[in-house]
């Protein structure tokens, strides 16, 4: 790997680290409460399985991004990094999609199933979830670029970088 | 690519084709109705955005799996197949995760948000969605194996298959 490419992939990993860390922190600290018919209704991420899965996935990706920054591309461990990049991309995609599906019901509701939207009552919570999803989406895109970079030898066997 | 490997990857692509086609058909044909308080309540996939996205994603993956079966590994198009395998894996993972998140709310509900489970009323619909999700999950795993196979040159540069 040339120095230019090393700086490029390291920058991407750093960006992924920041994005996943941001997504985790925003989602964990998201909360809001509303009073409906004299009952206080509290919204937080831990009330929904998909958001809990999201937090775990983003935290794992965050930790991995930090560790991968320090693995030399010349070491044998690097091959493990290539496989783990694929696994982490799938984990990120999966967690963003699940959380997005639930966030969509939270915002729009589903009249057929009788699920009412909740974002009108807890707008602060919904805004934080949206911010967290955007950060996680950026991280997923960054990992996709890293995979395509790993596949470059398959794509152009003549290029040796 | 040796003959053995070609048969192996072709079998995987055929399995992915069958799985995604099954997932699409089961989800599209899923429907059930229940009578609640003299109102007929109809459950079908098109009532929920995540299920519509699921059907589109599975149909696209199904069409792609069919086309990829006929692309020779010696042609230049093969490089495109390698990139598209990654894109399709991400598409499948994303659609399964989104649909699973909604199916989970359908089965368990979310008392905090006031979303009641609907599977008690429309068990036939829920069973079909479950079947469709299992088929789609198998397809996603198959594509993950295909990606790892494409990455073999990165993982073991000395092996030429």
TrEMBL record, chains A, B:
<protein>
    <recommendedName>
        <fullName>CASP-like protein</fullName>
    </recommendedName>
</protein>
<dbReference type="InterPro" id="IPR006459">
    <property type="entry name" value="CASP/CASPL"/>
</dbReference>
<comment type="similarity">
    <text>Belongs to the Casparian strip membrane proteins (CASP) family.</text>
</comment>
<comment type="subunit">
    <text>Homodimer and heterodimers.</text>
</comment>
<feature type="transmembrane region" description="Helical">
    <location>
        <begin position="12"/>
        <end position="30"/>
    </location>
</feature>
<dbReference type="InterPro" id="IPR006702">
    <property type="entry name" value="CASP_dom"/>
</dbReference>
<keyword id="KW-1003">Cell membrane</keyword>
<feature type="transmembrane region" description="Helical">
    <location>
        <begin position="133"/>
        <end position="151"/>
    </location>
</feature>
<keyword id="KW-1133">Transmembrane helix</keyword>
<feature type="domain" description="Casparian strip membrane protein">
    <location>
        <begin position="4"/>
        <end position="142"/>
    </location>
</feature>
<dbReference type="InterPro" id="IPR044173">
    <property type="entry name" value="CASPL"/>
</dbReference>
<dbReference type="GO" id="GO:0005886">
    <property type="term" value="C:plasma membrane"/>
</dbReference>
<keyword id="KW-0812">Transmembrane</keyword>
<feature type="transmembrane region" description="Helical">
    <location>
        <begin position="50"/>
        <end position="71"/>
    </location>
</feature>
<dbReference type="Pfam" id="PF04535">
    <property type="entry name" value="CASP_dom"/>
</dbReference>
<keyword id="KW-0472">Membrane</keyword>
<feature type="transmembrane region" description="Helical">
    <location>
        <begin position="83"/>
        <end position="106"/>
    </location>
</feature>
